[in-house]
Amino acid sequence: MEIVYRALFIFGFLWFVTRVTGRATLGELSTFQLLLYVTMGDLIQQAVTQQDYSVTASVLGIGVFSLLTVAVSWFNSRYSKLRPVTHGTPVVIVEDGEPLVDTLRSLRVSLDDLMAAARAQGIERFREIRLAVLETNGTMSFFTGDAKSGAGHPPAAG
Q1: Are residues 70 and 137 both part of a single domain?
Q2: What is d(CA 8, CA 139) in angstroms, rounded to the nearest whole number?
Q3: Domain count, the chain
Q4: Residue 151 forms part of a structural domain
Q5: Among 85, 106, 128, residue at a domain's last position
Q6: Half-sphere exposure of 109 (CA within 13 A, CB side)
Q7: Angle at which helices 55-78 and 31-48 pack, to 10 degrees?
């Protein structure tokens, strides 16, 4: 019966921690956040199954991880120069319809992966892409058409 009480306590604590640290969908998690949550899961497992014999140790471990997550977010919002260090910077991967092969290679992104992401956005050919950017969260942003004429952008509602 003790495992049920431990599980209930850890569940309540995790609910509290997720409310405090903020929200993100799995598709928006950074690699670091994903690893953080996996590590927290291991700490939880140890507390619930009594391998550590201490719910306190698990709560302290999760609490420290959560406080550090909140602290990093706070520092990022206060000091913009810190953000490239903690989150990285976006990288241009296609310019004027030409994939930047050396950049893609250094990022370990294949042309097939790039084209699959473009097709998901309704783009059939590389030449349609004016600019493509690999964002810091791993998603790809595509800009099509001529920037001066506004081509490739939906018309304004009116």
Answers
A1: no
A2: 36
A3: 2
A4: no
A5: 85
A6: 23
A7: 160
- CATH code for the domain in which residue 102 is found: 3.30.240.20
Structural domain that includes position 81: 2-85
Q: Could you say which of 69, 85, 101 is where a domain stops?
A: 85
CB 145 within 8 A of CB 152: yes
What span, in angstroms and rounded, lies between the C-alpha atoms of 137 and 83? Answer: 13
HEC assignment per residue over 113-144: HHHHHHHHCCCCCHHHEEEEEECCCCCEEEEE
One digit per residue, the tens of pLDDT, for the chain of length 158 reads: 676 677 667 767 776 776 666 554 445 566 666 667 777 777 767 666 666 566 777 777 777 777 777 787 788 889 888 888 777 789 999 999 999 999 999 888 899 999 999 999 999 999 999 999 998 878 899 999 765 544 444 444 44
